[in-house]
Design goal:
This protein is α/β, with parallel strands linked by helices. 59% of the residues lie in helices and 8% in strands. The protein is built from 14 helices and five strands. The protein has a five-stranded parallel beta sheet, with helices on both faces.
Length: 285
C-alpha cells in the first residue's frame, strides 16, 4: 500500500476496533484491492459489514471509503501518468548503454511472473471453453489490441472460428447482439481499462457465453465478469505498460490447444499453408 495511507493506518491502528484491525491488515497486504475494489467487495472478502468499511475510512480521517481509495490511487504506481513514469525511469537509468538489458530483464520478469500464476485448473477450463465454442470473439482495445490480434491469429491458425474486435462502436454492438451460450469470449483489459471491453464481458455474461479474461489485476473490472481469469504482469521497462506477460498467456493457450488436439492442429496449419501456396502469398518456401 502507498506510504501515506499506510502511515495513516499504522498511526491509528491501536485505536481501531477488532474488525477494523482485521480490515486494516487485509488492505495493507493487498494494495490492488484497496485501489480497485468497492467497499461492498472488500466487506465480503474480509467478512465484515459495508458499514464497517465506511467507519474504518472515517476513523482514519477520510470522508468515506471512496476518499480513502482516492488517496491510495494518488500514489499507486499503476495510476501514475505515462509522463511521470517515463521521467522516473529516465532519472533512474544510468544511460542508454544498458537499456537493452533493462528491457530484457523486465520482459523476462513479466513472462515468468505471469506464467507462474497460471494454474492447471484455469488453463484446462480455458482450453475446454475454446475447443467447445461455436464462435470465439476476442475483444481488446487500446494497448490490448495487439494481444487480441495475436490471439485471433493463433486460434485461427489452429482451426478455430475466431474474430477480434479492437474498437467499440457499431461493429462490436452488432456482433454482441448475436452472442449465444455456445460462444466463448476472450477479453483483454489492462489499465487504463477501456469501457467497451468491460461492456463486451457484461454482454457475454448476460447471453450465457463463457468469458475468459486476460487482465492485470484479480480485481479489475473484467475479472469479476469472467469464468476464467489470467492475471499478467505488465510493468515493463518502457514508457507504457508491457504486453510481454499477456502475449505469453496467448502463446501458452496456443501450445496447450495444439497439445490437446495435435492432429486437428496439424491439419488446420496444413490447410492454411496450402491456401498460402495456392494464392502465391509467400515470397519463398
Amino acid at each position: 500500500m502507498t506510504t501515506t495511507v499506510r502511515k495513516t493506518i499504522l498511526g491509528a491502528f491501536d485505536g481501531l476496533s477488532p474488525k477494523q484491525r482485521k480490515l486494516a491488515r487485509f488492505l495493507m497486504d493487498d494494495e490492488e484491492v484497496a485501489a480497485f475494489a468497492s467497499a461492498n467487495e472488500i466487506a465480503s472478502r474480509v467478512g465484515v459489514s459495508p458499514a464497517t468499511v465506511v467507519r474504518f475510512a472515517r476513523s482514519l480521517g477520510y470522508d468515506g471509503y471512496p476518499t480513502l481509495q482516492q488517496a491510495v490511487r494518488a500514489e499507486f504506481p499503476q495510476f501514475r501518468t505515462v509522463a511521470q513514469k517515463m521521467a522516473d525511469r529516465l532519472a533512474d537509468s544510468p544511460g542508454t548503454e544498458n537499456l537493452a538489458q533493462q528491457v530484457a530483464r523486465a520482459s523476462d520478469h513479466d513472462v515468468r511472473a505471469t506464467l507462474a500464476r497460471v494454474t492447471q485448473a484455469d488453463l484446462d477450463s480455458a482450453i475446454r471453453a475454446i475447443i467447445a465454442a461455436d464462435q470465439i470473439y476476442i475483444f481488446g482495445s487500446g494497448l490490448s489490441a495487439a494481444a487480441a490480434t495475436l490471439a485471433e491469429y493463433t486460434l485461427t491458425l489452429l482451426g478455430f472460428n475466431a474474430r477480434a474486435f479492437h474498437n467499440e462502436g457499431v461493429a462490436q454492438a452488432l456482433q454482441l447482439s448475436h452472442l449465444t451460450a455456445r460462444d466463448t469470449i476472450i477479453v483483454f483489459s489492462i489499465w487504463r481499462y477501456i469501457r467497451s471491453s468491460v461492456a463486451a464481458a457484461e454482454a457475454a455474461r448476460d447471453a450465457g457465453a463463457t468469458v475468459i479474461a486476460l487482465t492485470d489485476s484479480s480485481v479489475s473490472p473484467v475479472a469479476g465478469l469472467a469464468h476464467t481469469v489470467f492475471v499478467a504482469e505488465t510493468a515493463g521497462a518502457a514508457h507504457s505498460r508491457s504486453l510481454a506477460g499477456l502475449l505469453s498467456i496467448v502463446d501458452l493457450l496456443g501450445a496447450a490447444i495444439a497439445a490437446k488436439r495435435p492432429q486437428e492442429s496439424i491439419a488446420a496449419v496444413e490447410r492454411l499453408d496450402g491456401l498460402f501456396r495456392k494464392n502465391n502469398l509467400l515470397l519463398s518456401d
